[in-house]
Each structure stands twice: as structure tokens, then as C-alpha cells.
Amino acid sequence: MTLFRGRRILAGAMTLVAAAALAACGSKTTDEKVSAGVTADTSGDTVKVGLLNSLSGTMAISEVTVRDSIMLAIEEINTAGGVLGKKIQPVGEDGASDWPTFAEKAEKLIREDRVAAVFGCWTSASRKAVKPVFEKHKALLFYPVQYEGLEQSPYIFYTGATTNQQIVPGLDYLKAQGAKSLYLVGSDYVFPRTANKIIKAYAEANGMTVLGEEYAPLGSTEFGTITNKVKSSGADAVFNTLNGDSNVAFFKEYKSAGLTATSMPVVSVSIAEEEVKSIGTQYLEGQLTAWNYYQTTPGAANEKFVAAYKAKYGKDKPTSDPMEAAYVSVYLWKAMVEKAGTFEVEQVRKASDGITFEAPEGLVTVDGATQHIAKTARVGKVGPDGLITEVWNSGKPITPDPYLKSYPWAGGLS
Amino acid sequence: MTTVARDSRTVVDPAPPPAKPAAGPSRHRFRAVAGFAFGAALLFAVAPLVLSDFRLSLLAKYLCVAMVAIGIGLAWGRGGMLALGQGVFFGLGGYAMAMHLKLADAGPGNMPDFMLLYGQLDELPLWWRPFASPWFALPATVLLPMAVAFVLGSLVFRRRVRGAYFAILSQALAAAMVILLIGQQGTTGGTNGLTDIQGFFGYDLDDPVNQRMVYFIIAGTLLALLALARHLMQCRYGELLVAVRDGEERVRFLGYDPATVKLVAYVVAAGMAGLAGALFVPAVGIISPALIGIVPSIEFVIGVAVGGRATLLGPVLGAVAVAWARTALSERFPGGWTYLQGLLFVVVVAFLPGGLASLIGLARRGDGERWFGRLRRTRRTEGQAS
After folding, report:
1. Any stretches that span the bilayer, and where are they (chain B) (predicted)?
2. A interface test, pick of B204, B211, B215, B233 with most A CB neighbours within 10 Å
3. Which residues of A touch B229 (CB under 8 A)?
4. Percent of chain A whose pLDDT exceeds 90
5. What letter does residue B287 receive in the DSSP assignment?
6. CATH 3.40.50.2300 domain residues, chain A
């Protein structure tokens, strides 16, 4: 079949258009970056902030609780008069447990809604997907979940723990308890793989042996083989970085293999009160978790937070570490804005250093250099009522060190 | 599947449908050229003027999905191969492009940022190296998916694997590819994928002007792929493909090799998906396993089904409509948009089995005939109408 003349004309026209488009090109990568970013719209008597969490998909179960506690903080702040005299107006978007969707929604919040700050994201993959968006538009993200460290973006405030505030103290605790050998079990994605690399470096430097390392795909429920390997290894303790539903299957299998918290304790870093409830207390009783906050953490600030949360969302709803970190992040942003006297992002960043807040977990301080937060590390034991009771804490807030620069054994990691 | 069986009349029935005026080839030509001109005007003039930069970048993303849809329309609508694993080819194209752009960002001799972070490698892995050259990476975005499709297709079609078995097989391939990518975090970025892509052949992607340029390239490519698909559908090969779909054994007895006929459509569809993936990367700035697994592969097919799989424009319209509805609904109802999306699919499948494209046919013959009788006829004439 021959080409029609009409199509040839069309092809010619298209080439011309393409050429015109190419001729009208903008700056090269070698040019100086001049992008001024997007300025937030604060002209009215309200100020918009973005809430970016998964309300659908596999992560929804965890992220909805974070959304709820952010809303609680916003409500409290608005009742108390808002920020710089403006009421906060939340704009919610659904990240749908899909990383590129997170990037799209972040862009929408920044460019279309012109929000002053965005609160949210859970998985590291979603954070990695939105990071370039926030850096491109010079907008602020408050990320409320513990993560694998090795990151420091000028436009992200990390209000969850980095590795030296959760995993390393957890390992210190195990070492103090006399554990000489570890078995690592994790979901197959970035956080467990990176966390395990750090754990192996720690173990090597501290005379511990890592007897094995197993990964299960996210959402996997097949743990027979892994549990058998763990059992036959005879390790002193298991370090668990599994996420989500996999924990249910893993702990059921673990119990039916005859393993208990006394014979071979499991330290988990992704199981909080909400997850304990869904896994079932009978499988978890006596097992350990490493966090910065538990619902049982003593203090007036926490009593107030727990009471307010239960009053708003129901008596049976527990509070957990990521929820607390999300709640705190809104108050920290408020404090930064008030110190800066403006919503302007660069001024807010400059004002961030040294901001403190009497949080439910205790006093937290923003470290301006890393944009992480000094937090107290805690290790807790799951009780028969599904709540977690603290068995150890670091005594004082630990200065964040996302790249583990102050730990000689971590030299080869980043 | 029942619709495919009913469609078999398109080939066997030699009489043109009565409601359709006898259109000469010149009229077809005129209509096609006018259609393309209209599409070009819409994409190149109206959209950039009406839409904000952000919405335009979203449209660029939708158009990439539409490119995959054109290929699925060819392989599934015309060839009867339910390709449920197009994400693999989209991913191959996307990763090939992203690998090149990451290496270009890092500069000659340097390693991409994520490798330093997760990999603990001393030097660039061997299989990354060729992608440093655009002369390798650019052709690879299309040829790599086509080669994989060729190998897979040759094995599968020769053994006469078809129907649900083919669909399951292609789906398994998508799942396998995701597991492979996630497992190799140090060299593929794992679940994160390849993110934070700064430049596109020397042009800074942060600059809105360059983003616009990427949009224009995508729009132009889409039109070119449409022209290619139209050519394939209208030439002798296109008729043979429909014949294979409707009666593979009969075609075999006529002396043709159905396996080769199917293979061509499958390989072309893979090439289109690869190109779409390659252009998706500069438009969105990320490629990750989340974009190429089972769920996104099915979403590609849903767009085609909603639009009308056997037509030329149906898959494009369907893909854009579904992607746009996803954005619009989730912005308006962040809590419950998935229900609305599901409702939309149910409504289309139940009341408009020929897809959105059959609406055009309905509007064209707006007499008082009953809906369903008309729908059936629309579907019969789809082969000629496109």
C-alpha cells in the first residue's frame, strides 16, 4: 500500500512542528539553576496545607491513621487560633499506594493548590518519588515515618526516626541482653535491604554473627521455609523488617514452629500498636519492638494526645509512633512558621534549627543541619492487652545522624 | 470472549452493512487526513493554550499510556491476543531510557546516585555500560522490547498457545520482571525504581519550556504511531490479522502461517509500548516496578476495553479517558474515587460493550432504532469504520 499525498503533507507538517518545538527549547542542564520555585498562596485568611497519604491500596491501612492524626493536629491548631492568624485549610490527596501517583499528587498540591507545606508519605519508595518534585519547586514536605537513613533533602523534614534513633539502639539493646547471633527477616524492598546492610555492618563491628538473611515479597504470606531456616539456625534473636500483612503470616508460622519470645525473641521495627491489633496479640505477646513512642509512654502531653485521638476517632483506636510523628510534624511546622514570621519556605527552613516541642514522646528538637529531629529511642514489649510497654529507653533524645557519620563501623555504607 | 466470537461475521460476511454509505477510498483518505489534522490541531495548539503547565504534563503522561493502548488495540482488538503483560515492554523501554538519562546526569565515568547508596559497587555493572551511549540506548528503547516479544511470541504462537493461556503467560512475565527488578536493588534501584532524572539530552527537565518540548515530542509520536497503526490495519496484513483472530484454522488452510501473522502484531505492539515507556520517563521523571507489574498491565488493557478495542481511535480515547478520570475523580473524591472508577468500568462494559468508540457510530446514525440492535451493528462495522 502506498502512502497518500495527504499523509505526506501531514508528515511534513508534523516534522515542522517538531522542529519548531525543539527550536524553542529552554535551559540546558549545564546552565545555572534559576528556578524560583512556586510560592504558596497565603493571600486569604486561610493557609492551605497538603495531606498526601494512601487512602486506597495496600498501604491504606497504615496511612489512613497518619492522615487522621494530622487532621487532629490541624483541628487543634485551628481551634487555638491558627498559624500567624490564619486558619489551616487541609487539601487531601490519595497517593493510592503507587509511587508515581504520589509524585503526580505532590505536583498538583504544590502547583495547583499552592500549599504552604505537605504532610505525608509512608514508604521510602514514595518519598524517593516525590523528593525531586519538592526540590524542583522548592516546597516543603514533612515525612513522619521511621526510615533507612542515608538521605538529606533540603526540602524534606524527617520527623520519624533515622537508623541511629531506632535500629542501632535496638541492636545495642540486644547486645546488652547478650545476643551473639542474629537472623534477619525482611520484606523485599528498599527499607529492609538497606536496614539489613546497616545491621550487618553493626554486627561485624560488635562481635555478633548474622546467621542468615531472608526476604519475602511485599504482601507474601508464605513463611514456612523461612521459619524453618530461622529455627534451624539457632540464632539468639531475629531482627524483623517485614512490612504489612506479611507479619501476620510470619508470626503465625513462627508460633506454630514452636518458637517463642523467650526461646528466640523477635525485634520488629515496623510493628506498632495498630499492627499488633491486626496480627493478633496471642502471636506477638512478649516480642520486642523498637520505636520512639508507644501509646503507654508516660507524660501529660501523651495523655492529652491519646485522649483527644480516642475522642475524635473512637475508643478502640490505638495511637502509634508514625501517627505521633505526623501529629508532631504539624506543630513543628507551626512553630517554624511563627519563628520565621512568614510562610516563605526558605525563611521557614532557616528558622527550623533548634525548634523544640513538648511532644507526646517527650521533648523533640529540630536539627537544622540535617532537618531531622532529636528523639528518644525506646524498646518495648508487647503485652497481653495488645499495648506495648517500654523495657528500655535511651534516657535522652539522640541527635539524628542519617549517614551514621559518628559510627566508625558504618564507614563503608554511604 | 463472546464478543470476539460474534465478531467473526465481520470477515465472513462479504456484504457491506446497510446503514453505512458506500464510502469510496478517496472519501476514506479525506476523512483520515482531516482526522489527523484535527488531532494535531487539538494536541499542538488547543491543549498547550488551554491547559496549565501542570495539566499539560499530566496530558503528556496520558498520551504515553495511549501509545501502549494503540499497540494493545492492534494485538488484542485486531489480532485477538489478550496481551495482559504490556507493562514488561513499557518497562523495558522506560528503564533503557532512564538508565541512559541517569548515566548522563551522573556525567562520564561516574555512577548513578542510587548505586553509590545501595549498591556498594566499585564500578558500573557491565550491562549498564552500553546505555551510556545515546546511540545504543535510544534504539534499545524500541528494539529491546521488540526482541523480547519476538522470542516470546515465536515460542508461544508456534505452539498454538492462545486465549486465556496466552493472557496468563504474558501476565506471569510481568510479575517475573517486577520480582527481578526489586531483587536487584543495587543495580536497578529496587522498588524505588530510577527516580530524580534531571536532564533530557542536555536539556534541564525542571525548565517548563523543556517540559513543553517533551510534551510536543510525545504528541507527535502518538500521531505517528496512529498513522502506522492505521496503515497496518488497512493494508492486506491487517485483513489477514483479523482473519486469524476470527478463524485461525481457516487461515492456516488457506496457506498462511497464523503464527507469523500474530507475531508481527505482537512485536509491533511491544515496540509501541517500549517507545511509550521511553517517553514516559522524561515526562514524569520516574520509572519503577510499580509501573510495569500486573496491575498497571491490566490498567492498560482496561483503557483499551473502555475505548473500544477493535477501532483505531478507541484505545487512544479510552486510555486518555480512563487516566483522566482517575486523576479527576481522585482529586475530587480522595476517599472514595476507586468505587466511582469501578462503577464507570461496570457501566461501560454493561451498556457499551463496543467501548466509547461505538458512541461515534451511534451518533452518526441517529435514527430511532433500538440501542442494542444498533450496538451490535456498530460492532460489526468496526472493521471498516476505523
Report:
1. 30-50, 56-76, 83-101, 135-157, 164-183, 213-229, 263-288, 300-325, 337-363
2. B204
3. none
4. 74
5. B
6. 46-162+303-374, 164-293+378-410
A99 vs B117, B227, B290: nearest CB? B290
Q: Does domain A46-162+303-374 have CATH number 3.40.109.10?
A: no
CB pair distance less than 8 Å for B120 and A197: yes
Give the span between the Cα atoms of A153 and A142, in whole angstroms: 11
A164-293+378-410 topology per CATH: Rossmann fold (3.40.50)
User: Chain A within 8 Å of B161 (Cβ-Cβ)?
Assistant: no
The verdict on B120 touching A (C-beta cutoff 8 Å) is yes
Distances (CA, A) of A114 to A50, A90, A109, A138, A352: 9, 12, 6, 12, 21
Res B116: pLDDT:
77
B26 to chain A: nearest residue by CA?
A4
Question: Quick one: DSSP state of residue A314?
Answer: -
* pLDDT computed for residue A35 by the predictor: 54
Q: Looking at residue A29, what is its pLDDT?
A: 65
Q: Which helix (H) or strand (E) holds A157?
A: strand A156-158
Contact, A165 vs A400, CB < 8 A?
yes
Best of A29, A127, A188, A214 to disrupt the B interface (most B CBs within 10 Å) is A29
pLDDT at B382: 47
Of A15-19, A66-70, B185-189, B219-223, minimum mean pLDDT range: A15-19
Which of B88, B310, B105 has its CA nearest to residue B181? B88
Determine the Cα–Cα distance for residues A403 and A42; give it in Å rounded to an integer.
Answer: 36
CA distance B64 to B66: 5
Chain B: nearest CA to A94, how far in angstroms?
A: 5
Strand order in the sheet with A266-268: A209-216, A181-187, A237-241, A266-268, A288-291, A378-382, A388-393
Q: For residue A83, what are the β-bridge partners?
A: A86
CB contact under 8 Å between A129 and B227, yes or no, is no
Q: How many CB atoms lie within 10 A of CB B331?
A: 19
DSSP state of B130: G
Average pLDDT over residues A123-149: 93
The pLDDT tens digits of the residues spanning A146-180 come to 999 989 999 999 999 999 999 999 999 999 999 99
Quick one: pLDDT at residue A36? 56
pLDDT tens figures, A202-220: 999 999 999 999 998 877 8
In this prediction, residue A25 carries a pLDDT of 58
ipTM of the complex: 0.81
In 3-state terms, what secondary structure has residue B348?
Answer: helix
Q: Do A14 and B220 touch (CB under 8 A)?
A: yes
Spans of chain B, pLDDT less than 50: 1-22, 367-375, 381-386
Beta carbons of A389 and A294 less than 8 angstroms apart: yes
Alpha helices in chain B (DSSP H): 2-7, 9-12, 25-41, 47-50, 53-72, 86-106, 113-114, 134-158, 164-183, 185-188, 208-234, 236-246, 248-253, 258-284, 294-307, 314-332, 337-351, 357-364, 371-385
Q: Quick check: B256 contacting A, CB < 8 Å?
A: no
Q: Which residue from B185, B195, B208 is facing A193, i.e. has the nearest CB?
A: B185
pLDDT in tens, B344-372: 888 887 888 888 888 777 776 654 444 44
The residue ranges of every structural domain in chain B are 31-293
- CB pair distance less than 8 Å for B40 and A96: no
Residue A97 is placed in which grid cell?
Answer: 499506594
Residues in chain A with CB shorter than 8 Å from the CB of B234 are 1
Burial class (CB in 10 A: 0-12, 13-18, 19+), A117: buried
Q: Is B284 on the interface with A (CB under 8 A)?
A: yes
Residue A206: closest CA among A414, A394, A393, A410: A410
Chain A residues closer than 8 Å to B64 by CB: none
Max CA pair span of chain B: 73
